Amino acid sequence: MKILASDYDGTLRTEELVDINDVHAIHEFRAAGNMFGLVTGRSMESIQTEIQKNKIEFDFIVANNGGVIYDRDFQRLQVLYMDFNKALDIIAYIKTLDCVSYVINDGFHRFKFSVDENQIDHKYGNMPDTNEHEEEVLDRGKISQLVVSLNDTMLAEEISHYINTNFKGYAVAYVNVNCVDIVPEGVSKAEGLYFIEQHLGLEHDAIYAIGDSFNDIPMIEEFHGCAMMHARSAIVEPAEHVFISIEECIAFLMKL
């Protein structure tokens, strides 16, 4: 049995909808006795919608870059939360930035707040601001992830460096497409996959991970790493294999 853990945006989903050939390949892969899971920076609320819209079959979901884990029946296995006071400090810092918006994730739901409405929001342009006031969201006292939407790659790298330096021990930031993902210290896609490995009793050597962005590097390095051909060199370099699609990746795994 082989296990394929796939990033979502930029890997399985490269257009508005997931390619039907990839969907069929996943079906055949699982029908042959293998397992397929999604490992994403998205919230559970978001990825569940995508799964249902694209009719993706799966065996597990690792969301929030590893901090939120669900099984094939959408039953929660784990949610990790940020230190609340440190999260408030990070939100205060975000509000000083030249960013478009930020999103607060409570472990399942996400709440968007605009910062500069004059900028185009490439990350969350189709997502309206929440109807709730920020104080109402914060009164819940639980934050599992913060996402900063912005249009400047250099600024994204600066934000990531600032968070990883000034909030070391409390939070870790990953540069992603048009955004920076901020999660509790110790959270990564690799750690999320290690949880799945232990929870399901899987063989480490049977797990393959594929992605295309910086937040995918931990799982690419820790498991049999695969990268998308369009990924930047920093993502491709540690990978054992490079593919143009999930369909091609699965075809390779089915021959092993």
TrEMBL record:
Signal peptide start and end residues: none
Sorted UniProt keywords: Hydrolase
Pfam families in the cross-refs: Hydrolase_3 (PF08282)
Keyword rRNA-binding recorded: no
InterPro entries: HAD-like_sf, HAD-SF_hydro_IIB, HAD_sf
GO cellular component: cytosol
MF (Gene Ontology): magnesium ion binding; phosphatase activity
NCBIfam families: HAD-SF-IIB (TIGR01484)
Protein name: Cof-like hydrolase
